[in-house]
Amino acid sequence: MTSKILNIAFLSDTRVDEPRNPNGTASSDLFLNLFESLLPPQTIINPTKFNVVKSRLPSDEELSSLDALIISGGFEDDAYSDHPWVFALGEFILRVSKEFPKIKIVGICFGMQLIGKVFGGDAGKNPAGLECGTVTMDLTELGKELLGSDLGDASNVNRMILRELHWDMVTAIPPAFQLLASSDLTPVQSMVRFYKEGSQEDLKLEDRVHIIGFQGHLDCSPLHHRES
What is the pTM of this model? Predict the structure, then answer.
């Protein structure tokens, strides 16, 4: 069987070269472990890493061969701040979505908040305050269909459990995006934008995803947050 190669760029938004969990594992490696567990056999991930705080972004030549971008969570600046690197990253994401539409975009925590902001929604402080720890969230009907089999709680298909640490959130979902999950403290826990209707109708639902965001940290414990 011929192997399929997926080229994925990991955009890190910290001033260190790469964020690591308490065990010393790099965030990008945790994401890769998660994706490898979800992808079909014979799929090989080819990762590249960019520190966007240091203005390191993929070139057009690199973008031409990419399959996906992952914008990580971080604690440097708010997604709604006016810091130059945040603005540059937001403009970059918008341009990639228009000029390189085959690239799927995944936003985690800060990444989803920035997506919410730049695509016409909004992001800001969560009036409920800090949401920290293992969070149970309700999946919408679309969320059950799209996420339930892979990321849903094994004991209850109506919900998803992720680890979280955030004060900010998406306060308004952008046009053309749809809600996938919410929690008691954070109404927008996950959202998705599909490719335009008519261009992807023959594909499976997951293959129609263009942009998806999660407030929770998939990289903290890939699939270990599912209850048995």
Answer: 0.84
